Write the structure tokens for this entry.
Amino acid sequence: MLAEKLLLHILIILAPMFLYSVFLENRRLGKSRIMTGLLHGAAAFLCMCFPFVSYGFHWDLRYVPLVISFLYGGPVAGGIVYVIIIAMRIAIGGPVLLYGIAIVSACAFVPLLFSGRFYRYMPKQRVMISIMTAVWSAFTAFCTVTVYVFVVNADRINAKPMYDLVWIGIIQIMGMTVSALMYERIIERKAMRKEMERAEKMNTLGELAASIAHEVRNPLTVVKGFLQLMQQEQNYQYVPLILTEVERAEKIISDYLNFAKPQFRKIESFYLSNVISDVIMLLEPLAANKYIQLKSEIHVNPLLETDSDQLKQALINIIKNAIEATSQGGTVAIRTDAGKGEAQIIIADTGKGMTKEQLARIGTLFYTTKEKGTGLGTMVSLRIIEAMNGKLSYTSEPSVGTEAVICLPVKEEKRMRRAQ
């Protein structure tokens, strides 16, 4: 009977670590000391609901969540568990109520002393402290029961509770050891995840810095060469070329700034067809130069409210990618459609298409299917559309073509009108 009870208690005291690891570790609640206290308080409560009663004493493993909450959760979490245990013990009552309260208070005292500086110790030291506090709890309970059995109740001496307490103390120390080791694994996993995130950020930062240096250095090298020629020949015919390269460098820097944080300078209401017409007018020479047909089908003309210049920039990047991916004689079609409370812009090309692996990486920084490029244009477009509370998705098939679908919220659904 005692063994079954203790095994049940072991499962109960390990449940908070399992719940934390699976459901709360990556959430804000997982960082709450109050939530930690409530989880371990619930474990202590359930342990006390299924006790092994002998000689008036209720044997269970309530002290394991009490000590663990003080050490790993801090004074607030430990205090919550302490209050829950005391309240439950008072509700149980019995002739040894004061002895039970005394044991709980004594068991809470030592971990409370360590709670403030517990995380300053090394992991192995923390486990050893947890085990020593478990030994202290078992020793405190043993001494209290000894006083009761051999002093207060000396006329009916019975050593059986002492044997029960020895086994409970051993299981309690084992439960504390397992709980501490589980907590250390959780802490180690969180530290490893943070280190991986930091390494990933540093790697991305390094790639970003290298990309900026590479992209900006090219036009600056051209500018430097032309300035040297002008200095030698006193000839100003290179000024337009210099200005072109400087503008290119400025555009590259603007793209990086847009990637970091899209700037919506002018929020206005406009019809989508106007923006698409402007974009097609800008890109028609590029398409014609590659003998590609660029056509539009405006089925609906929704009213949008956002920065039209930023939307143009996103559309230019996406349509330009479609043109560059299409061979001579191909077609790039732009059409509009209506969804539920949103406008859809579909950009379909008859280019080389992409595999599933390539499609999965679209929108990833520094990934591009072009020989020359950084993949930044797609990322900038994606950030702009997301900042407009929209979304961008791709479907593609090798040797067939690619379709990009942009969904944007409309200002007023009732003002979405069919194109005449």
In short: Confidence is low (pLDDT under 50) at residues 413-420. The two ends are 83 Å apart (CA to CA). Residues 268-418 form a domain with the Heat Shock Protein 90 fold (CATH 3.30.565.10). The longest helix spans residues 160-233.
